[in-house]
Amino acid sequence: MxxxxxxxxxxxxxxxxxxxxxxxxxxxxxxxxxxFVCVYPxxxxxxxTISSNDLSQRGKVLFWPKEIHFHNYxxxxxxxxxxxxxxxxxxxxxxxxxxxxxxxxxxxxMFTRETLWKRKLWYRFVAATxxxxxxxxPWFITMRNLHLTNNFWGYILPMAxxxxxxxxxxxxxxxVPKELQDAAEIDGAxxxxxxxxxxxxxxxxxxxxxxxxxxxxxWNAFQDTLLLVTDSRLYTLQFTLYQYINQxxxxxxxxxxxxxxxxxxxxxxxxxxxxxxxxxxTIVVVTPIILVYPIFQRFFTKGIMIGAVKG
Amino acid sequence: MxxxxxxxxxxxxxxxxxxxxxxxxxxxxxxxxFSYYPLYGWVYxxxxxxxxxxxxxDSFVGLKWFKSMVDxxxxxMQILKVLRNTFAMSGLSLLFSWFPMIFAIFLNEIKxxxxxxFVQTVTTLPNFISWVLVYSIAYCLLxxxxxxxxxxxxxxxxxxxxxxxxxGDHVWxxxxxxxxxxxxxxxxIMYIAAxxxxxGELIEAAKVDGATRMQVIRHITIPSILPTYFVLVMLxxxxxxxxxxxxxxxxxxxxxxxxxxxxxxxxxxxAMGNGGYSLSTAISILKSVVSVLLLCCxxxxxxxxxxxxxx
Lengths: 311, 311
Fold this sequence. Notes:
Chain A is mainly α.
């Protein structure tokens, strides 16, 4: 960022012509539109979930919430499946991220160890998997043979070793001065000790980047549930959302039945419709991403640049 | 032999190297099981595989499934249609692959830093939500009472709600729009990184010589980020057949099925829909072979043009 500023706003100014001015104005307009297109959908759905469902249903809520209420959120809390799906999603995100990060860090470090037996061979063995894929059926049959269908570990183990993250970590470890490791080894530290005491503290920035990518991938994963899981107790939030959007009005019945007591108290205008429930679940699923996004935004530019160096 | 091994292990360095190998062995096994072992499943393409029964030599059919793709005119038509969709979707992305580059260049021209940061932040956000969420957002915006229909109707452009998602028209274009909405901001980051790393002195010199801003963009910025563009185009060429299935799976319905089925989705539908395990595997084998060839070709081109490959 700092460098960029130097380049464009130093003493020497451009000759400012009329066309330049017009382009400048146009740029602001166009980027405002881009930003609007990216933000508005989220905003639109949010204001509709807290507005009167009656008005929302007639398409009257476009720019600001009307007759604010939180009945939809209370309704959604009543759906028992949703809560279990949330638990599964959170569990797989935490456990899966932990596995991916620890393995990426450890293998990334081990592949820089010149003492490692057949180092190059094993590195290629892992890295090559980025470039081929057996296909859905062979993969599914493998998972079935390993009893990983309808199994929580089916979400974790196949995604545990990620060659791209390993390469990121390896590149980072290579940039750490070798003397640090050598000094520790002369003092008698073993490989694992070097890893935990010397390497891990130094490579924390790249681990943060990897953790964020891995967590987002786990949170967003959908295909593995689709292929491997038929047991509704293992459905993730993404998969449940997909089902809700594809189920027609039965969703509304589900909600209004499961909480008829609450429903009586609610005024007619607030009675949840299928669409309002879909919107509310959408907000529930997207919120964690939007909340952590500002925190991790500063990490990913760094990550992608290290990745770009490697090509 | 034993003596040789004994001698090998008497060397402390070798002993350490072997111990390090044992540390990474569990992870190598994970890679072998989840990435290499499924390749064995390719044999299903040469059998008439009916899921509950184990494979036996009785059902060996040789190249029957490969031949049936060409011999059976109905199947051939279908496969050609699927290939057409795949080529159209990948082709559209390739055709507009310059868009993120232009996006990055003009974003970099914006002098108001908070605005620039804001635009960059919000346009990157859609990249981090899943396709299921994108679909549910599309559903919320485009359903009969959604904002798009409300606006179009109140402007008098249409008389009755238009169901954009349940129609077979312009499917390729719509899919491209959603893909761009999700990815453009994220792809731009790569170029922004490249622009930040540009040679400042060159631009300074051009400005001293009286170059206008457009001239600087045309003669300095664009040439210096073209290598990045080239690599990304080569990568997308290598992935020409692999659009992934998630996007098309969530957007698929009875109305657009004909024009949305790309190769990855077709392989899935074939297997899950009518149990065509063997044919589906045969198609994915062909796809993998072509993909690897494409990768080698593009890597070769890259070596010729840039002097280095990207693998």
